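Deliverable D4.2, example record:
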Amino acid sequence: MDTLSFERLPADVHEDICHWLVHGDSDSPDAKSSRKHSNDRYSGLRAVAALARTSRTLHESAADILWEWIPNLALLFYTLPRECYTTEQTEDRTIAFEIIRQLQDADLVRFRLYAARVNKVGVWDYTEDFSFLPRKVQAYASTHNSLLELCRVATVNGWRLLPNLTTLACTEETLPVSVSSHLPHLFGPSLREFKFEQHNLDKGPALDGTFPTAHVEGEENIVTMLVALRPHAAQLERLNIRVDDSSPPMVEAFWDVVLSCRNLVALDSGYFPLTPAALHHLAHLPLLEQLHFASLNGAFTKKWILEFESLLPSETFPRLHTSYMILVNLDLATAIVNHITSPSLRGLEIEIHRKRVPSVTIHRFFHSFCRLPDISALQWFHLRCTVFCHDSPGTSPAPITDKMLRPFLASSRIDFFELFVECPFDLDDAFIADMVRAWPNINNLRLGGSYPRGVGYVPEVTWNGIIKMARGWPGLKELSVEFDTDLSRASATRLEEVLESNRMNRFKSRRTLDFMHVGLSKVENDMAVATLLSELFTPITEIHSDWYDLAMQEEAEEQRRMEKEGDAFQPDPQLAERVALYATYHDRWCSMENPMRHIDLIRRQEGVMVEHGALDSESDDESMSSLD
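Output generated by the structure prediction step:
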């Protein structure tokens, strides 16, 4: 292509060229990885900077790409006269930019020219790929007083510092909340995404279920910031707030912003307690796709949930894709699932915090998934809670059965399914086989939390189910399931198929499992278990069980009973024997990796001998005998 033809290309093509030079292929993870590990990862950035200085054709496009996303306003200080600011490296290697004299309108001519190109300020939660900028530039920070001076000039002259800003991520590093009253001078009608983060490094977020504290230090600044944001709420598409401490004025100001939103696509309200009015409003937003919230203060009473259930479900959550909820009861989650009319629900994550759930409630919750318009779109699901028997306290709650989980089998897209539910699970090999057929792409399966059912309990999931999962799920990386390790219940035909397959392809059909959780699975013959596991998986680095936790739990209960009964206390005569047995099971699972690696080493040595014709088929008979 000659120069004239290149100059005649549309401006957006020139911009795409510059964007690719700086960021690479934004849709390709491999391209990002190669840039991070290349010898000169900033070559594209330097090339675009050179084009901005030397090319008439690409100057505008190159300058736009260079300035569209900056980590901090400090980067713009280079456009100010040099005598206006100083730089100093702090102890944490941050390079602080400080304005040292009062700015005049003439000082900001170049500043405003380049600031108009800025679309995004800030880096959010270290999840965004910012590797195209040198680390030194990422360490730039403007001081508090410098930001105040910039805002003062903007106020006096009646213009905005960043008139075309679409995304603003506020942290104490990029934009301290103490300057939040000046936010209207930062952005204009182009703002679509606002993120704010402030953490209490001393104690973290308050998740004790209490109401917001009466007063939070610095709350006036946050309230002022939210009040300044509210006039722009109608145009917001994404709103993300993460604040560890909240007070009633902060909560009210935040939800006032949300209630003013009309085009919201994604909301993450952090630990701000959700209000009934806000949930009612969010349920009817036509574009809402992502909803992350917490409700730990008991604001949602049974009466309100019943009123919410009466809403016309055809009008609620029409485009919801994902939702993450931290709650104190499962009834609210059930009501929300009942009202999801979106045919594109991809994922749900629900945690019940510090409260036990009646078993009848969890049955209703799972039944609510039968009402989803299209459960086949679901890709991931996570539930964490503890279940109790409401009708008869002290007895085991009703178990989770295959009938309750069967609706999820309608989605072949599921690759992540976690049930950290502390209650009995009654599943068997037949249902495991159905799961393997229904979910061909799964890589993470967790079934069950820790729930003791007595030493005599024998799970219905056996080696047949484990073999089915190992052979049927090539992408499986994490597995949590309680099963019977007795090899006498395993199908001899299936065991022979595994051994024959491994002999034929030199163990290439084994899976690489990163983590395995076996709950309270008993292990009597650890060498036999290790041998079969090594036939199915490469050595597993982490194998966890719940036997140690059960021992601690029973000993603690014995201690509490002794303190309560005093002189009338009669010790449990079987406790020491049970705890010793628990410790044996715990130790066997913890050390399972060692025999697996030893068996692996023997196999590699046998493989070398086979290649040299020094080993006959008797070794196969020995492998079978080790499983007896």
